[in-house]
Design goal:
Length: about 110
Amino acid sequence: MPPRHRAPFCGSLAGRDATIVLNSLPFVYIFLSAPLLRPAREEPGVVRVPGGRAILWLVAGAGLAATLVTLASAVIPPPDANDPLAFEVKLWGGLVVFAVLGFRVCRRARRTT
């Protein structure tokens, strides 16, 4: 890739990685809560993981581990990044901005209801 095209491309990688992080965070909550929210006995309309509680913990643990590996790899700058610090600032700054916006929207929605 020509040098003049590399900087904008590497800058857009921080946005892509921020999207990966923001989209993966709900899976952390899902995998942490699945074993805890599993009903003790069968309920109508609820599909349970076959194999019992031990298999559910195993499946949730594997899903959580895969999600955490995804999150960890998304915050590592690519090897051809010209400025790794700028990559990290864009990534973490974007995450903070979108988290604050989400909390504000949630707070505003709670006030109106």
